[in-house]
Amino acid sequence: MKIWTSEHVFNHPWETVATAAWRKYPNPHNPAVIGTDVVERKVVDGVLHTHRLVSSIWYFPKWAQALIGSAKVCYAREHSEVDPAAKNMILRTINLTFCRHIAVNETLNYVPHPSDPSKTLLKQEAVVTVKGVPLNHYMEDLLANKISNNAGKGRQAMEWVIKKLNDEVKDLTRSTDEILNSTKRSIDDIASSAKKSMDDISQKAKKSFDDIQNLRSGNFSEF
Amino acid sequence: MNSIGEACNDLKRDYDACFNTWFSEYFLKGHTNDSMCAPLFKVYQECVKRAMKDQQIDFHEVEKNLLGTEQERKPPQKPS
């Protein structure tokens, strides 16, 4: 079992981030997501509960397909709760297709930042469990790295959607120069924070790629 | 964004548009009554459930613990 966690701050209020979360797909940073559908949705005691089916394409190296199965379009089930009074949005995703060998449980939690209500804190956690597949720990590391990469793209996607929403608002209210300048400053902040995250993630991805190469060339001294 | 069922795309688009408006203009402002988009949702949901049945996607598969039981699916056997 492998646990991966991360925290990230968006320089936008919680309502903006929660709205953007529903409009996340499609976006250029997550081209693998090819479909989302709401299967169930209702408000219970002021909290919005939603069940969604998310379809995406995962590309695994051929040698891994023999272990996992040749499923290329993968389905995941996402259960989310939005509590507008408590300003808490939580999304839990578990993949369906891989359940025979691998379970990926991912949780995203958006709350207002504890020390700055104009910002939003995202806490992300993924638990990967692999059973009945050789090289369990290796597969778990591979998936955790993949999740880490996707998480970075997910955050970029959110920024992209938020910017799109902000642009729509600007058009609607005929923006002034002041609004334009402050948006540009926000985007500069976001860009530098995203770049730092991407650098971290690129290093981890490279290490994981090197591990795959070692395994392919039969260099087992590392394992 | 597409639906898993191609026939549901238009229904999905109409429902999503209604939902996005309801979510930011009503729900987040404290109006938790969800009847505004209910008719659109009903039609869209029926289409999705039909598509899932056609594509044999079992949404509740994840709730069953399949690993280690007879229902656990094995990797495909390589032809020798």
From TrEMBL, chain B:
The keyword Nucleotide-binding does not apply. It comes from Zophobas morio. One of its GO terms (molecular function) is phosphatidic acid transfer activity. Belongs to the TRIAP1/MDM35 family. This is TP53-regulated inhibitor of apoptosis 1. It catalyses: a 1,2-diacyl-sn-glycero-3-phosphate(in) = a 1,2-diacyl-sn-glycero-3-phosphate(out). The lineage of its organism: Eukaryota, Metazoa, Ecdysozoa, Arthropoda, Hexapoda. It comes from the Eukaryota. One of its GO terms (cellular component) is nucleus. The keyword Aminoacyl-tRNA synthetase does not apply. InterPro entries: MDM35_apoptosis. Signal peptide: none annotated.
